[in-house]
Amino acid sequence: MQLTYTDLLSNFRKGLRNGNWRKLRRLEKALFQASLWYSRRQGTILNELVVSKLSVLVAKLKATKGARIFKRGYEKAAALLSKGESVFVWAPSFKAWLKDPDYVFWLGMTR
Hints:
Layout: H1 5-18, H2 26-42, H3 48-62, H4 65-81, H5 85-90, H6 94-97, H7 101-109
Helix pairs in contact: 1-2, 1-3, 4-7
């Protein structure tokens, strides 16, 4: 896998627009900016270690509010499914609810 300057720049701008840039730690920002500078001067970034670390940062920058809510809801649904069959004895339709995307999204919105 490789990252080009245009890829990094578009992800950087998206992160600035959606506010995820300010959520990154100082070292993550420094790595991203250094990689942006390097890719502009030298070309494509090919090092697998650097690309893997930048891929994590790109995913953080691209994350939307809805995706974060859905992920949190999915984690809650998985925790409820792992509780065992004791819950589903008195609420048999609850298992179907946990597979419904709308319900999972609602779970992610609740605290």
